[in-house]
């Protein structure tokens, strides 16, 4: 039988893949490493099938290794006797806790069959939520910007763990980037926010990313010439292009209102609901204050 690493997508139950949902529905046990992944999984599986694992909020590698060994020892026998799933937000192979589990299983329980079901990663979901188009050949780099860091280099950057947006912003703007931010994109819990104003993000929230693009970046695309002065396309087929025959540079132009299908872009409030006896709002406050306690960032905070 098999251990499935199932990517749940960014946090809306409707963005779990069809295959991921089928695995969750048939698995004997579904392990979740955190409160958010658990709540997404619960849309597709009965609570009685959920197996919680305990991960310490520490950077102490010894403690982390021992937590992963314990988790693998709990999961392995169930994966020999039946099908089990380990869920992660986003994609299991993108910057995820699942990598730790896979390596620990490989080391200590190499007979366990393992299969990965990809999920919609924040690495791609951000583009839709923030109205960014990544064209073919674009150099895009994924970096970490915790505690106000401002990594620079390529023309385009996705920055994870933006915990001090104002400080990160300052460094990036100084280095010639235009920056926009996405918080809790396509997440059922909390408020989705897309903004280019870092002062709106002063409150720390682990689920915040940034997209930075060199301000002088010019992208020439053939279809940009279809644009008219009014912004609406001319559909007559043979009409003169309203602007000119010159191609228009449209790299970096963003219109989040036309994106984020399924949930309106900009600010969105999820209903407050009761989870494990505490209100969702209360737990979210706690997570923010503590830097993502039980928020699926174990080992990666
Ligand atoms: C450890 S990485 C997890 C990535 C995940 N495995 C994926 O594929 O999306 C966590 C970071 O991803 C970003 N992130 C993940 N989900 C997000 C979301 N729904 N909205 C905004 N940022 C998100 C945040 O920057 C967060 O600090």
TrEMBL record:
**Where in the numbering of this chain does the Tetrapyrrole methylase domain appear?**
2-137
Pfam families to which the protein is assigned, alphabetical? TP_methylase
Keywords for the protein's UniProt record, in alphabetical order: Cobalamin biosynthesis, Methyltransferase, Transferase
Q: Which GO terms describe its molecular function?
A: cobalt-factor II C20-methyltransferase activity; precorrin-2 C20-methyltransferase activity
Per UniProt, the enzyme's principal EC class comes to transferase
Biased composition, class Basic and acidic residues, residue ranges? 285-301
The record's annotation in PANTHER family points to: COBALT-PRECORRIN-2 C(20)-METHYLTRANSFERASE (PTHR43467:SF2)
| Pathway linked to the protein | Cofactor biosynthesis; adenosylcobalamin biosynthesis
Compositional bias segments (type: Polar residues): 258-270
Alphabetical list of Gene3D superfamilies matching this protein: Cobalt-precorrin-4 Transmethylase, Domain 1 (3.40.1010.10)
The record's EC number reads 2.1.1.151
Q: Does the keyword DNA-binding apply?
A: no
**Does the record carry Methyltransferase as a key word?**
yes
- Output the PROSITE patterns linked to this UniProt entry: SUMT_1
Against InterPro entries, the record matches this protein to: 4pyrrol_Mease, 4pyrrol_Methylase_sf, 4pyrrole_Mease_sub1, CobI/CbiL, Uropor_MeTrfase_CS
Q: Where is the composition biased (Acidic residues)?
A: 273-284
GO annotation terms (biological process): cobalamin biosynthetic process; methylation
Name of the protein described by the UniProt record = Cobalt-factor II C(20)-methyltransferase
Q: Which organism is it from?
A: Natronorubrum halalkaliphilum
Region Disordered: list its residue ranges: 227-301
